[in-house]
Write a structure and sequence with these properties.
alpha+beta; 8-stranded mixed β-sheet; 5-stranded antiparallel β-sheet; 8 helices; 31% strand
Length: 458
């Protein structure tokens, strides 16, 4: 997300009311235990679920923009990490009409955003299983205490799904924590004349009986908050970068800046190493009035007022830092935003003759960047506040000053390569930097990453 995003108080989503439905379930001897309802994330303890690891989501969706109705089937392939008698999924608002596990009806219970499936018999530790959930209804946006919105955002002729940090649960059931990444297949049917754009590559487009079906595939692992779906009357462009990478974009109105996506991506490769995904592009919809851009995987979403070079640089940098190397928990958010903000500083130096040192000085002078340490937002309301962005970038610059340019940029590229398509924490990062540089950087971490006061700076 771009650094201009306000703080987003979304923990209220986790308290939304739900309903209970039932379908046939079985008995037999039970020696398994239910999976945990929540992964005890420091900021969203009820987000995600324990006892299994999702490998793949296959979402089959039908959306009618006029009625704002979504009909969905989610087929989830997962591996049990313990013997399970039941397991949970995160889902907000929509009505579940039934579920199966490995082809057999499963009992379904709904309590708020917790959807519990009890299969007919235990799922043994190490076993791969397939859960199919059928659901429908009117998806909703979620509004935080600061007025920002995420989730399913309606537009004049469709909708855009924005998932950070919890909004993805408003349009499909899943293990909605960034630590459980998976591949995706999204099949969407909409009325003719309306585009449906998601992550990954468009594998098929077919029309029949006044409706068009789009089939999208994401073969690289993705955290669910990075999944998107945009439905509307967009102009679609398709091209390739000079190196041959596919570029697929959907936009409303004139968007000359999109022609620079390929240029800016290849410029970032010089700093960050090989681009980690099999395509790139953008979704541009200025009618979406949310006030932020979002780094949805390999196809960032730009909303009202956010299609600027700085936003594009920021969201493209997230493809390495945040999307490929994803946070282990939401406490590690500064690693996403610090790197993306530092990419803006590099852009200002290379394209606008503003030295990185000057960008650092401006960030240092801003009181808002010192409200709390970058790695320690006080609550979930603050994980997108200024210290996570500007403060995070200052941490990186102090590392650069401590270890020198050659080592620093080696660390920047090596970090992206070491954890490519995985998850990593703040502790992983600080340990990696010290190992690669051969330096004890305790003073940098204590002062700039965890320190509670603005230090003296010459």
């Amino acid at each position: 997300m771009d650094q201009r995003t306000p703080a987003r108080a979304l923990a209220a989503l986790l308290l939304a009311t739900g309903l209970t439905t039932g379908c046939a379930g079985g008995g037999g001897g039970v020696h398994g235990e239910p999976g945990a309802a929540g992964l005890r994330d420091p900021y969203f303890p009820r987000l995600g679920n324990g006892g299994y690891d999702v490998r793949h989501y296959a979402l089959t969706l039908g959306y009618d923009p006029a009625a704002d109705r979504l009909d969905g089937t989610a087929e989830i392939t997962a591996r049990a990490t313990r013997t399970l008698s039941a397991f949970n999924l995160d889902l907000a608002g929509l009505t579940v009409t039934g579920a199966t596990v490995d082809g057999t009806p499963a009992a379904v219970h709904r309590a708020g955003n917790e959807l519990t499936l009890r299969p007919d018999g235990d799922l043994e530790q190490g076993a791969t299983f397939r859960a199919v959930i059928r659901y429908s209804g009117t998806p909703r946006a979620v509004t935080g205490s600061d007025g920002t919105r995420e989730g399913w955002i309606r537009t004049r002729d469709g909708a855009v799904a924005l998932g950070q940090p919890t909004g993805s649960m408003t349009w499909f059931p899943g293990n909605h924590h960034p630590s459980d990444k998976a591949t995706y297949a999204v099949t969407v049917t909409v009325p003719d004349g309306v585009e449906a754009v998601s992550n990954g590559e468009l594998r098929q487009r077919r029309s029949a009986n006044g409706r068009t079906t789009f089939v999208w595939r994401s073969t690289e692992p993705m955290a669910s908050y990075l999944a998107t779906l945009a439905v509307g009357r967009y102009a679609v462009t398709s091209s390739r970068t000079p190196s041959g990478l596919p570029v697929y974009s959907a936009a409303r109105g004139a968007t000359p800046l999109l022609a620079r996506v390929a240029e800016l991506l290849e410029w970032e490769e010089e700093y960050f190493g090989p681009y980690p995904f099999s395509s790139t592009g953008a979704i541009v919809d200025p009618t979406v009035q949310v006030g932020y851009a979002l780094e949805t995987q390999n196809r960032p979403v730009y909303t009202n007022g956010t299609l600027t070079p700085e936003f594009v640089v920021h969201e493209l940098a997230h493809q390495w830092y945040g999307n490929s190397v994803s946070p282990r928990s939401w406490r590690d958010m500064w690693l996403n935003e610090g790197f993306a903000t530092y990419a803006e500083w590099l852009y200002a130096e290379d394209y606008q003759d503003v030295p990185v040192r000057r960008s650092f000085e401006r960030a240092y002078a801003r009181d808002d960047n010192w409200a709390f340490p970058p790695a320690l937002p006080p609550t979930a309301d603050h994980i997108s506040d200024d210290p996570v962005y500007g403060g995070g970038a200052m941490v990186l610059h102090k590392v650069r000053q401590a270890v020198g340019d050659d080592t620093f940029f080696g660390v920047v590229r090596g970090w992206a390569a070491r954890h490519r398509h995985g998850n990593a924490s703040t502790d992983d990062f600080t340990r990696y930097v010290e190992e690669e540089s051969g330096r004890d950087l305790t003073e940098v971490w204590d002062t700039w990453l965890y320190g509670g006061e603005r230090p003296p700076e010459p």
